[in-house]
Amino acid sequence: MEIFDYDNVLLLPRKCRVESRSECDPSLEFGGRKFKLPVMPANMKTVVDEKICLWLAQNGYFYVMHRFDLDNVKFVRKMKQAGAFASISVGVKPADYEAVNQLAAEGLVPEYVTIDIAHGHADTVKNMIEHLKAKLPGSFVIAGNVGTPEAVIDLENWGADATKVGIGPGKVCITRMKTGFGTGGWQLSALKWCARVATKPIIADGGIREHGDIAKSIRFGATMVMIGSMLAGHEESPGSTVEVDGRLYKEYYGSASDFNKGEYKHVEGKRILEPVKGKLPDTLREMQEDLQSSISYAGGTRLSDLRRVNYVILGGENAGEHLLM
Ligand SMILES: NC(=O)C1=CN([C@@H]2O[C@H](COP(=O)(O)OP(=O)(O)OC[C@H]3O[C@@H](n4cnc5c(N)ncnc54)[C@H](OP(=O)(O)O)[C@@H]3O)[C@@H](O)[C@H]2O)C=CC1
Ligand SMILES: Nc1nc2c(ncn2[C@@H]2O[C@H](COP(=O)(O)O)[C@@H](O)[C@H]2O)c(=O)[nH]1
Description:
Blueprint: E1 9-11, E2 28-30, E3 33-35, E4 39-41, H1 50-58, H2 72-81, E5 87-90, H3 94-105, E6 112-116, H4 123-135, E7 140-146, H5 149-158, E8 162-165, H6 175-179, H7 187-195, E9 202-205, H8 212-219, E10 224-227, H9 229-232, E11 241-244, E12 247-253, H10 258-261, E13 271-275, H11 280-297, E14 311-313, E15 320-322
Parallel strand pairs: 4-10, 5-6, 6-7, 7-8, 8-9, 9-10
Antiparallel strand pairs: 1-14, 2-3, 11-12, 12-13, 14-15
Bound molecules: NADPH dihydro-nicotinamide-adenine-dinucleotide phosphate and the ligand Nc1nc2c(ncn2[C@@H]2O[C@H](COP(=O)(O)O)[C@@H](O)[C@H]2O)c(=O)[nH]1.
The site of the ligand Nc1nc2c(ncn2[C@@H]2O[C@H](COP(=O)(O)O)[C@@H](O)[C@H]2O)c(=O)[nH]1 has 24 residues, from β10.
C-alpha cells in the first residue's frame, strides 16, 4: 500500500476548460441538502457554538454542533424555531439515548446526527445507529471515527448514511503518542484506502492544514472534510482570546483533553493557541475561491472533476508519478 499524506502529495493539472474560475462550482449535495462548500467545522467547543452554527446554516454551509455541556433537545428546538436545519452530535452513553428518546417524543427531528466517539468501530456505535434509525428515521446519520476499510464496511452495513475517517491526525490530537494507534501522518492514504470500499459518503476528519488539502481530500475519495484548527482561530471562535507579546490568539483544545473533560482521565488531546486570523466568513470565502481554482487546475467545472486527476508523491519510498490509466 502507498503511504502518503497531505504534505507530500501534489495533484497534476489537466487542460483548462473554463475562461474564469467563477465557472467552477465547489458546491455539493449532502444528505438531501445543497451546501456551498465540502467543508464542515469540527464539532468541538473551541470551533463552533450555537451562534456560529446558526450563521453557517443560514448562509449555505454545513455544520455539526458539538455535544459537550449542551442540551441537544433545546438546541434542535432553537434551530427549528429559527427556520434552520439541525445537525447535532451524540455519544453512546445513557444520556445520549435519553436525548434521542426526548427528541422523538417531541417530534423534533434533527436533519443530521453525528455519532462522535474516539473509536467508532464498536458495537456501541452499532447500537446507537439502530436506536437512531428506530426513533428518528428521518435523520441522516454520520458515524465515526474510524481508520480502516473494515470499519467503513461495518458502519455502512449497520445503517450509517456517512462515515467519518480519521483517528489521530488532528492538530490537538495526542492519540498516536498515547496509544500507538491511528491515521496521523498518513491520513490521506488512509482516506484513499477507506474510500475504495465505501458506497456512501466519507468525511475526511483531521489533518487539514492548507486550503489545497480540501481538493486533495476530494481527490482521494472524501465527499466532505471536517476542519478544526484552521477554523478555530477566528474573531468569532468560541475559545478564549489570549494575548501573548501583543499578538492575539484563540485557544483550541481537543475534545478528549483535560480542558474539555474537566479531569485528567483517558486524555488524548491537548490545548494550543491559534493566532487570530480575522473573520470566519472571509476564510470561508477564500476557501471557496481556492477550491474554484483547484477545480480549474483539474480541467473541470465541478468538485467531482477533482477525482480524475493524476498525482505525484514527493520523496520517500512511494515517490513518483501516479497516472490514471
Ligand atoms: N478523531 C480522533 O482521533 C479522536 C477524537 N476524540 C474526540 O474526543 C471526544 C471524546 O471521545 P470519547 O472518549 O470516545 O467520548 P466519550 O467520553 O463520550 O466516550 C464514549 C464511550 O466510548 C468509550 N470509549 C472511548 N474510547 C474508547 C476506546 N478506545 N475503546 C473502547 N471504548 C472507548 C467510553 O468509555 P470509557 O471512557 O469508560 O472507556 C464511553 O463509553 C469525541 O468528540 C471524539 O471525537 C478522541 C480521541 C480520538
Ligand atoms: N485524538 C484526538 N482527536 C481529536 C480531539 N479532539 C478533536 N479531535 C479530532 O481532531 C479533528 C480536527 O483536526 P484538525 O487537524 O482540523 O485540527 C476533529 O474533528 C476530531 O476528529 C482529541 O482530543 N483527541
